[in-house]
Amino acid sequence: MSPKAITALSFELIWWAEPLPFIKVRIQTFAQDQSLMHAPTTAMLVLVAIVLMAAIVVFRRWVSTPQRKIAKLFRQIEAGQMPEMPVRTDFDHEIALLSEGFTIIALKSPSAEIVTVRWDTVVDATAYKRDLWSTDQVCIAFELSDGTFVEAHEEMKGWSDLCSAMPEHLPGAPRWEQWFMNITTPAFEPNITPLFHRAPTSIAP
Question: pTM higher than 0.70 for the full model?
């Protein structure tokens, strides 16, 4: 090795996270002259590396990240629980449950007609996913005895209450956690899933 030796300290941390594919932190110093590489400088670089590593460990363990949120939702679904969805306040429509059915109200169009559905007039209920290009939207289409269709979707206020009420009022309809995962994967596919069918003799007039 020549008198002017090259000394390098390289520290790499690769951590997968959203929304970036990865975060890579690299600390690297080069010296062409041994006289430029003193002990205090080395100690400072090591200290900086330790601090960065500790900060990332703390962030991954205690700070809520998209991966942690999604993992929590999957654990709740696998346990047969209704997942804790993020609180949202900006809705275009609201689903209101009634003893005999439900209504869909256009919150931003007060003059719009209120859609009313009676449970005993529901002939079929089918879940599917609508492709909105950048994301998907889970929907349920209710076919009524008069041949009309009413669609409810997950962007409506009261969606989870509607899904929870269906097995009680539509005999044989599966619980939300039994069909939701079949709809969400694979992404951008309709994944049509029948949820309920009523025999013609039991349809209300």
Answer: no
